[in-house]
Specification:
This protein has two helices and no strands. With 108 residues, it is mainly alpha-helical. The radius of gyration is 43 Å and the shape is rod-shaped.
Length: 108
């Protein structure tokens, strides 16, 4: 009778072990699925963040474009001395002897 009880307990233990192993495999599969889902979510978020950053950079460039156009237009409307200065050249100046203010009135 003790042998039958021992064998019954052994069978129960084997069944319990098989059930526990099956539960462990299911838990591992769930964990793997959760990791994959997390990785895909992270990748998607990184992609969306990169796209948003790219759009923000483009918007900044687009916003700066009218400023550059206004600046260029203003440069064209400035007197020639300013254009020379912008080009890194000394301003052109008329010799003092030929300016009206520096001329002495003629004595007749």
């Amino acid at each position: 009778m003790a042998a039958r009880q021992a064998e019954a307990r052994l069978t129960e233990a084997r069944e319990a072990k098989a059930a526990a192993e099956q539960e462990a495999r299911a838990a591992q599969e769930q964990a793997a699925a959760a990791r994959q889902e997390r990785d895909e979510a992270v990748t998607g978020a990184q992609f969306r963040a990169a796209e948003a950053e790219s759009r923000a950079d483009q918007a900044g460039q687009d916003a700066a474009e009218p400023d550059r156009a206004d600046h260029a237009e203003a440069e064209l409307q400035r007197p020639s001395a300013d254009r020379d200065k912008a080009a890194g050249q000394p301003a052109r100046r008329q010799p003092k002897s030929t300016t009206r203010r520096s001329r002495q009135p003629r004595k007749s």
